[in-house]
Specification:
Length: 276
């Protein structure tokens, strides 16, 4: 028991975070669970064998700074950090309040960078560790109607790519998870509030597929793991020629709207922001 590994998870109370928490709990990890939703966080923690629930608003810079200090000075060796917290505010850029723009940048990018740095310092001091972060296929292909979200995820992808070789020599591995549409509460919110139909060009993936991807990243230590891999091929091709998206939008939106209607009907959903 003294050799039990420790994992830190942000956005732990959400669909993806709780899925990964359950898997790591089954693998015998001691878990540090972080989320803004204390009620859901406590419910999750009660279902796990060895976890500590820490309600933290990662957009509160003072609270974030305190958490960084705890990670570097108080938690002991963190073997795995799953940096997963994120938020989307849908709507064209001109329609969004400044607060919506700032929220996405603060949570999706700024807090992620600072937490990754704190975890990397912790891991480097012990000579090993693995940082896994939920990015998005929206960090490869920009989505109309989710411009700031895409910007935050493009930035996170660049950050992970840049630090990989910086941290390799210190024994710290870095991976990003790149899902397309995932059947979460966040996607359901987008479906009801004008989110990009491109999320529904393919069938939204179950959260179990993202859980599989995280376990795969832990085993392979790959820089980028895609969910599903097949959709990543077209996304990465488009990223080489981003100007082509404008020409493809009419067809993609037609396909996506059909997929959206099917999704709404399947989930019996009647056609702001919600956390991942």
């Amino acid at each position: 028991m003294m050799n039990r590994k420790t994992a830190l998870i942000t956005g732990a109370a959400g669909d993806i975070g709780s899925e990964v928490a359950r898997r790591l709990d089954d693998m015998g990890y001691k878990l540090i669970l972080i989320d803004i939703d204390q009620e859901q966080l406590d419910k999750l923690s009660q279902r796990l064998r060895n976890s500590t629930a820490m309600p933290v608003d990662l957009t509160d810079r003072n609270a974030l700074s305190l958490l960084q200090t705890q990670i570097t000075d108080e938690y002991g060796h963190i073997d795995l950090a799953f940096i997963n917290a994120g938020v989307v505010c849908v709507g064209d850029m001109l329609e969004l309040d400044e607060s919506d723009i700032d929220l996405q940048l603060e949570l999706n990018l700024r807090s992620a960078i600072h937490l990754i740095k704190a975890c990397a310092n912790n891991m480097a001091a012990h000579g090993s560790g693995h940082i896994v972060s939920t990015v998005s296929m929206g960090g490869i292909v920009a989505l109309k109607g989710s411009a700031t979200y895409s910007a935050s995820k493009f930035g996170l992808r660049g950050f992970l790519s840049a630090i990989r070789d910086e941290l390799k020599v210190k024994g710290v591995k870095v991976s990003g998870i790149y899902p397309s549409g995932v059947d979460t509460q966040m996607l359901r919110y987008e479906a009801q509030h004008g989110g990009s139909p491109l999320n529904f060009v393919g069938t939204p993936q179950p959260v179990t597929d993202v859980g599989d991807a995280v376990i795969r990243a832990m085993k392979t230590k790959s820089l980028e793991v895609y969910v599903p891999y097949t959709e990543s091929l077209s996304a990465r091709l488009i990223s080489f020629f981003p100007w082509t998206v404008s020409y493809m939008y009419p067809a993609l939106e037609w396909i996506g709207k059909r997929g959206l209607n099917k999704y709404l009907n399947t989930h019996k959903i009647n056609g702001g922001s919600i956390h991942e």
